[in-house]
Fold these 2 entries.
Entry 1:
Amino acid sequence: MRKKLLVGNWKMNGRRVMANELCAAIVNEMQNLKNIDVALCPPFILLDEARKMTAGSECMLGAQDLDMHDDGAYTGQVSAGMLKDAGCEWVIIGHSERRTLFGETNLTVGKKTKQALNRGLKPIVCVGETEDERKTGQETSIVQEQLQSVIDEIGIDSCKDITIAYEPVWAIGTGLTATPEEAQGMHSFIRKQLRSQHDETAKACRILYGGSMKQNNASSLLGCPDIDGGLIGGASLNADEFLGICRSA
Ligand code: PGA
């Protein structure tokens, strides 16, 4: 049985006061959230605040990106070693906003995933098609290509150590959600792709859904056999919404 994983992606939101309040509310509820994993991914600059607030609790910490290199002359970047030092266990890689707004490619996503694994971070690798790609029936080929380029970079054996997040771009921050059937269809397609290369990896790998997951649609999505949790953006900025999603898992 794969344990459900709920990840809050705060994106570029928050101040220290907000981080304090949100973490406090979530930590306070953690003892009632048995049998699920919860991780919060605040902006880099709020990681330390979040680390202090979640210390000693079951709530884990992650970052939203990392650089593919070790420490060095890369102005503005943040390394895996820094993230570990800041208390991170997880790191989101290849979010669609990174791909579309900051020019990340399948190649850089693969390299970042490898770097995270090599430095002991758990990567959450995002894949997903745009609205146009779905309208023209290319969704599975796009996702297959995104996933395969990561597999090619890290090797199929290492895929048991990554988490995949299927996030249809048209559902991110739009209020549109994939139906449970659409989401389950893609999750099962992703698992099949893993299974065709390594059966054990396919069984172990958690595949999260992301894209306007809310309290009111979470249980139908999280009830699907191949949906192992959620990557939650907007709703993770509100403790009641986020905890509501966690409870339905
Ligand atoms: P959303 O974002 O929940 O606000 O749609 C999800 C994500 O981008 O990870």
Entry 2:
Amino acid sequence: MAHDVIIVMGSRSDLPALESSFKLLSDFGVSWTARVISAHRTPDVAADLARNAEANGTKVIICAAGMAAHLAGVIAAYTTLPVIGIPMASAPFNGMDALLAMVQMPPGIPVATVTAGNAGGKNAALLAVSILALQDSALREKLKAFRKEQTEKVLADDAKLQAELN
Ligand code: RP5
């Protein structure tokens, strides 16, 4: 079955940080699947997935990895599909290593890098939704409704705070 989004994680230990991506994509009704594929432990599988993704109907690939996080860059090297990287926070550098590895792709092969952790997982999914929405007006409307709801929540929080203070 074709999935619009594939989420690839370098290790099963990355799974908890991706719950926010899974939930958000599901909430938007986007078809997604997830794989554990390592750029250094299973490099052939990584290359095969990236080479075949477009023909398989995938539109966006999200890659989560920690430490020397080359997974997103390796996947991006084998496909022209948009690749979004989520750095995973791990000891001893707490994700700064993975962030720099992803964001510092040399020119020619971009990885759209978001922040680490759950916020990164959520933003990676939202960015994937934005990309898919270019070709899907119903999804675009859902994204606008999401933004509106988010705005209204902050306005309500502010109104509540003003009422508490005054
Ligand atoms: C990376 O190394 C993975 O993405 C993970 O974040 C990190 C540690 O992997 P494990 O030793 O937990 O499998 O490849």
